[in-house]
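Summary for the steering committee. The consortium agreed at its last meeting that each partner would contribute one worked example illustrating the joint modelling workflow. Our contribution is presented below. We chose a case with several input lines so that the handling of multiple components could be demonstrated. No manual editing was applied between input and output; the record is shown as generated.
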Amino acid sequence: AAGVIQSPRHLIKEKRETATLKCYPIPRHDTVYWYQQGPGQDPQFLISFYEKMQSDKGSIPDRFSAQQFSDYHSELNMSSLELGDSALYFCASSRPLAFSGTGELFFGEGSRLTVL
Amino acid sequence: KQEVTQIPAALSVPEGENLVLNCSFTDSAIYNLQWFRQDPGKGLTSLLLIQSSQREQTSGRLNASLDKSSGRSTLYIAASQPGDSATYLCAVVSNFGNEKLTFGTGTRLTIIP
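What follows is the complete predicted structure of the assembly.
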């Protein structure tokens, strides 16, 4: 079965550089979520999109932005990178409860960002 | 604001033992609860999903229970194996219409051969 695809799997950047992470949800899943997991931490919600519109916003820095495209894939753009941005970034997808979904979120393998 | 707590933070048990991991949440008005497994530096593998109307779910050697009114869930692992060593995270969905998960702090499980 198709899963959530994230790319790249690993990314190394210098401070103050820009990074872009991509997420391809499971087919027919119209909701995408981004999470950040720092070393030894639990995943923290960043932002979510439903039908290409931002549906919720968590602890996402102003230096970060994201969008969902017409094919439902999503991109997380991170600028002016800081050392503290080094983390695992997860994308998850789901079908909303309101549309016969179970509310179950399916996660990708994550993108590991290292900022030097 | 929903807060999810898992106790203990770490647990070591000999192989073959049955064990229970605990999860508690402050707002009992949840829509579902998911248990995940995470190996070091790896992604999140969904183990079990319990809908708010359900009391438990089973998959193989795993059984998860939900007591919504008391804000608790447990994950029972039978006949533990070294391959079960991982961090186990519980997470809840609190809002209908925006099913983001709020994660617990995780329990790092080590099964001793």
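The interface with chain B takes residues 31, 33, 42-45, 48, 50, 55-56, 58, 88, 90, 92, 94, 96-98, 101-110, 112 of chain A (CB under 8 Å). Chain A is about 0% helix and 50% strand.
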